[in-house]
Amino acid sequence: MLEVHPTLEVHPINAFDDNYIWLIKTANQQHCWVVDPGDAAPVKRYLQANNLTLDGILLTHHHNDHIGGVVALAKSGVAVVGFSQATERLPVLTQAVQQGDTFELLGHKVQVLEVPGHTLDHLVYFITTNQQPLLFSGDTLFAGGCGRMFEGTPQQMYASLQSLAVLPADTQVFAAHEYTLSNLKFALLVEPNNEDLQQRIIDCNRLRAAQQPTLPSTIAAELATNPFLRVSQPAVIASLQARHPTANLTEPTEAFRLLRAWKDTA
Questions:
Q1: Active site includes 66?
Q2: Contacts of 263 (CB under 8 A, 6+ apart)
């Protein structure tokens, strides 16, 4: 008999100024998980308003705007999944995971990927479904951008992003912040003639005007418009070379380093 998994639904819960706490559930069922609950209060309100039971929490990294609500939410029976090498920085883990581990969430397989760069203990979660795959990318891959390197090196961050760039093109990307328009504004400085980027800015402005999230993105959209996944593209190299005439941009990690430094000061 063919086993059919129920379709996963992902709902945004707004927190702080621009965080998204992603809630994952299946249609017509009342059990759910959340990703990076930096604040417990909006999660509790959402659960109560929608008569949902929290089964588990996924943590991508240790920054407080991602873990601040965990203790208040992690009652008996709630799974808390996070990086095995960050147990001292993460609260109340019940399941410590690392690169290559898999586990089940609401009947679906979750794959764990280590992506150091933003922090050294950053994970992302890739979920295969009977429709589009899902990626919960935390602060590593944003729509149109990537996270700052607080702990990792450009080499680490570049490698981490490349490991996500090869995921299926239709993978939906659920980043943790509504940074899209700011990121795309910078991307346009880098690639002013990128028509896909120009159209994406129009689309995202329309969404924000309607008070809608610009997420999820897709890996395909990021490959077409995100300069941090395009550091080997001629247009990106040309923009960097104009700013750094003597730089050796044949090395992608050097191009990435200069691009991230540009974004940090833009």
A1: yes
A2: 145, 186
240 contact partners, CB below 8 Å, separation of at least 6: 190, 247, 249, 255, 258, 259, 262
Nearest Cα neighbor of 78 from 56, 62, 95 is: 56
pLDDT at residue 3 greater than cutoff 50: no
Is residue 3 within 8 Å of 107, Cβ to Cβ?
no
d(CA 170, CA 131): 9
* Spacing of C-alpha 254 from chain mean position: 23
Write down the pTM of the prediction: 0.96
Catalytic residue among 36, 39, 62, 63: 63
The residue-averaged pLDDT of 221-226 equals 98
C-alpha distances in Å from residue 210, one per residue of 173, 205, 213, 214, 228? 21, 9, 9, 10, 28
Specify which residues 219 forms β-bridges with: none
Catalytic residue, from 62, 108, 118, 122: name it: 118
Closest to 197 in 3D by CA, of 161, 236, 163? 236
